[in-house]
Amino acid sequence: MGKKLLIHNDKVPGIHTLEVYRSNGGYASVEKALKNMTPDQVTDEVKKSGLRGRGGAGFPTGLKWSFLAKPEGVPRYLVCNADESEPGTFKDRYLMEKIPHALIEGMITSSYALGAKTSYIYIRGEYFYVARILEVAIAEAYAAGLLGKNILGTDFSHDCHVQVGGGAYICGEETALLESLEGKRGNPRIKPPFPAVAGLWGCPTVVNNVETIAAVCPIVMMGGEEYAKIGIGKSTGTKLISASGHINKPGVYEIELGVPVEEFIYSEEYCGGIRNGKKMKAVVAGGSSVPILPTELILKTAKGEPRLMTYESLGDGGFATGTMLGSGGFIVMDEDTSIVKNLFTFARFYHHESCGQCSPCREGTGWMEKILKKFLNGTANESDVELLWDIQSKIEGKTICPLGEAAAWPVAAAIRHFKHEFLEIARNKKFVDISHYNRLNQIVA
Amino acid sequence: MATVETIISHYPPEKRKSAMLPVLHVAQAEFGGWLSPEVMDYVADILRVKPIEVFEVASFYTMYNLKPMGKCVLEVCQTSSCWLNGAEDIVKYIEKKLNIKVGETSADGMFSLKVAECLGSCGTAPMMQCGASFHENLTYEKVDKILADYKAEGKLKSYTDKDYKNTL
After folding, report:
1. Which residues are within 8 A (CB) of A338 and not within 5 positions of it... i.e. 6 or more apart?
2. A293 touches A413 (CB < 8 A)
3. A269-286, pLDDT tens digit by residue?
4. Band of pLDDT at residue B162, cut at 50, 70 and 90
5. pLDDT confidence band for A439 (50 / 70 / 90)
6. Among residues A150, B94, B120, B161, which one has the fewest Cβ atoms lying within 10 Å of its Cβ?
7. If 0-12 CB within 10 Å is exposed, 13-18 middle and 19+ buried, where does residue B101 land?
């Protein structure tokens, strides 16, 4: 059984309430940080911990915090990115729903370190009921003097608010999120300036993922160096993985970074193997945007070493033979899965969610969806595979935000590793039932 | 109006526009489940912004309805994990049961059917959302019961409902 730091108490009855949460040691990091540490000391512990952003990009959190501009007389903000919309990813929802105070505790402790007097939790609109859970927890925290003026009798005052989005995946991109929080369309901003310099309302802002912020609490309690002893190399600490697809035990698991992928998929402690005794065909390891890998490459690296659940091991060999840990959205597909059709659901998703600001993304995502539809309805030619490859290459790296890459990488990886499936469908004019999708097009037209 | 004022108080006084998204959710819930041009103008008035600023936001985000909808808007997730677990069959089943197609509203005005792109329930797929409620691990039997319950209730379901259900 691996060490758990974030959801170790998720099964305790009533843990969503302040009373039970505190009786289980909750808010100790606020007490320790505000009464015994300076803000810089908190930041130093986060730096020592090696914590990397758990939203997907994996950027070192302490380093991100240290970029925060601190001009006098200008407010600073902490914004929690709870816009969890990446297909395959539902870990933050679990954390917020089951243990909402874990996030609020992290918001207070992190805001203290950053000198932020106000923070916002921007949560995707579809999670409205989770927002309600957070709002109730925040009200409890205010009533107990953990939020508001002079928290726990110290000089630190802080307000925390929840903002619900409107159902746009793009708002998971930090600058689009800030635009949305300002009451506008979620169009990503050109960087630089980065939010650390000009973020919310032009003020210095740190945007961190839910899991990242919650992880600050155990880091403060155990110390950064102790936290860094968990995991392997630069992949320190624990990580929430949301597992779904054709596995026996879908759900959210907290792992110590470094668990072998094979153990994660097949052990009873985690996914419990492939459903109905079937063989595994492929895995998307970190949410829909990361490259899919066939069984032989997800279990072992190109060098034949066991693949580990770490940022480095999953990325071993670049995209030719590797993928990314990403958000930890782990989708497993069995031997009967059509990779082409699964890719079609991803392409449809990215076309739908493109904000439309950059032409390569706006036009390219729709074009890729159309070509994949040709494969499904049996009208594609072999040359369409090359066309699909060409289009994705013309989106990647040519957009303001990473949605371009997120749309292009799954297509590139599917062709790279499963080109034979595309060709087989094109040569044999195989038909995959998409009558439902055709009806949608008629309605839209 | 008290709810709206509370939302606006979360932002600096000169940044009322930031309340746009949450206020639009409240407006949609209060005015029949959709945002008419008159409702959007009213929101613009409250937030002290131009009407076009409200429209450009309302038309960007998928959760705002710009035309009348049924009392219960059923949104079936169809992205990867839900598809892997039979979301298409669920959509077809609902279409047949309600005698409508995706994008349409039932004759009695009770149900509208939509498809959605990933609602964050991949581990409990297939799923659908209705207002603030998540209905997960869907089967035909479960769908039957959900529809019957909503029909018996006969109430408008909105994202801001406090009596949400989560059928994990």
Report:
1. A421, A432
2. yes
3. 999 999 999 999 999 999
4. confident
5. very low
6. A150
7. middle
H/E element, B135:
strand B133-135
Distance CA A239, CA A257 (A): 6
pTM of this structure: 0.95
A174 in Cβ contact with A81 (< 8 Å): yes
Contact A128 B25 (CB under 8 A): yes
Pick from A291, A283, A290: which is nearest to A266 by CA? Answer: A283
Does pLDDT of A436 surpass 70? no
How is residue B61 annotated by DSSP?
Answer: S
The lowest-confidence range among A9-23, A401-415, A424-438, B78-92 is: A424-438
Identify the DSSP state of A308: B
Among A169, A252, A439, whose Cβ lies nearest the Cβ of B123? A252
**Chain B contact probe: residue of A159, A345, A369 with most B CBs at under 10 A:** A345
For residue range A61-117, what is the model confidence (pLDDT) as tens digits?
Answer: 999 999 999 999 999 999 999 999 999 999 999 999 999 999 999 999 999 999 999
Nearest Cβ partner for A181 among B12, B18, B104: B18
Minimal C-alpha gap between B152 and chain A (Å): 22
Distance CA B125, CA B89 (A): 12
DSSP string, A202-244: GS-EEEEEHHHHHHHHHHHHH-HHHHHTSEETTEESEEEEEEE
Q: What is the dihedral angle through the alpha carbons of A38, A54, A185, B131, rounded to the nearest 10 degrees?
A: -110
Q: Which residue has the tokens 């999953």?
A: A314
Q: Which two tokens stand for residue B82?
A: 């839900």
Strands (E), A140-297: 159-164, 205-209, 231-232, 235-236, 238-245, 251-256, 280-284, 292-294
Q: Which of A186, A197, A440, A169 is nearest to A327 (CA)?
A: A169
Asked whether the beta carbons of residue A244 and residue B120 sit closer than 8 angstroms, the reply is no
Give me A413's structure tokens: 């990886």
Residue type, A131: A
Q: Is the pLDDT of residue A442 over 70?
A: no
Contact status, residue A123 vs residue A117, Cβ threshold 8 Å: no
Residues whose CB is less than 8 angstroms from the CB of residue A375 and which lie 6 or more positions away in sequence, other chains included? A340, A344, A384, A422, A425, A426, A432
CA angle, A278 then A309 then A347, to 5°? 65
